[in-house]
Amino acid sequence: MSGFFQESLVAEWTANLIKLAIAQSVNAKTFELTGEVSCRACGYVLGQLAQLCRHGDSYFLNLRDFYNRVEEKPFDTPEEYAKSTLTGETHCGSKECRVKLGNILYLRDYPQFSPIYPLKCKAVQIKYIDNTNGKEKTIMKKKWSTVPFDIPLLVDDSCSNDADDDNDIFYDACDSLPGDL
């Protein structure tokens, strides 16, 4: 009798764990990314949380304005890898800070998105609005895998590149002026 009771208890416990895991997975995937990503050292805003994407283990802001918010320090010789090339470092764009935020990476499998600037999780802080209670929360983690929500992949629709957006206020290499034609 106790064997049947134990099996019944284990089966009920397993079913509850599966339900909990499914609920957490659904909540994590439906979480609206409202907030901002900033330098952990000085608080300088780097971009909006909704523009945070990932490619493999690289997490970056997929926003042209982000490139105007960081300082690039290229390496003398790039480091070649199987699917990417590491060409330099990125530092905080605040003149008072200049802490290292990450690297400059060219992706061979997605040249249309290159270069990307992967951010070190321990170099940034994330402020977001918790959709369960409406309060602002700050996340300061050491690893991206411990962030409490899913970050969309580079190829997801929710993580599209805004390279064709001509409404931004910054002039960069992607823009053309009327006199350029």
Can you put this structure into words, describing what you see?
Helix content is 18%, strand content 30%. The protein has 181 residues and is α+β, with helices and mostly antiparallel strands. It folds into 2 domains: 1-30; 34-164, Metal Binding Protein, Guanine Nucleotide Exchange Factor, Chain A (Beta Complex). The longest helix is centred in the first third of the chain and has 29 residues, at 2-30. The chain is elongated, with a radius of gyration of 21 Å. Mean pLDDT is 79; it is low at 26-30 and 162-177.
Outline:
The chain has 181 residues and is α+β, with helices and mostly antiparallel strands.
Question: What layout of secondary structure does this protein have?
Answer:
Elements: H1 2-30, E1 35-39, E2 45-48, E3 52-55, E4 58-61, H2 64-67, E5 70-80, E6 84-92, E7 100-107, E8 124-129, E9 136-139
Antiparallel strand pairs: 1-2, 1-8, 3-4, 5-6, 6-7, 8-9
